[in-house]
Amino acid sequence: MALTSAKGLELRAALPPFLQDGPVLGAFMQVYGAELDEVWAAIDSLLANTSVGTATWGLTTFEQEGGLPYPSGADAAARRVQINTWTRRGSRTATISHVKALAESWGYGTVEIEEDFPAYAVKVIFGSVSSAPDIDQMTALLRKLIPAHLTLTVEFNYTTWAELEGLTWGAVEALGTWGDVESGL
Questions:
Q1: How many other C-beta atoms are found inside a 10 Å radius of the C-beta of residue 58?
Q2: Going by C-beta distance under 8 Å and a sequence separation of 6 or more, which residues neighbour residue 156?
Q3: Containing domain of residue 24, as a range?
Q4: Are residues 176 and 114 part of one domain?
């Protein structure tokens, strides 16, 4: 019987030469080797999925652990970038630039951070969207970054058509560019 299993070939090589070509041991080496091939493949897969850089099915576990949204339709590379960004976020001090970078990484446009030292508060203001479908996840991640003694407030600052209704086109042009109008009067 010809051995096709990689581990079976390794097992046979460990036998003394006079036993390597026996039909009974050859059959055992093929069967045991095939089983060992599956075991080692499972171990290799498990080890690969403990690292974000090589994970496949393990990416879901990393996303669940970080409270990250599962990006529907995203490829593994995009998911790895999101997970790596999340893991690096928790390793730094919560500076304004760090909080701003974290908030902007969710892709909801420009972000302003206001600190109110006397009130022990931080306000995160999104300037170009009216809401975020995953606001709870985003707030939870910001909450993990910002020290516990500070109050966190998330606001959305945007212009509605009702606010523009009483203005003439000339008055709107005087406000600046269309982007200025969209981000708040």
A1: 17
A2: 125, 126, 129, 130, 131, 132
A3: 6-48
A4: yes
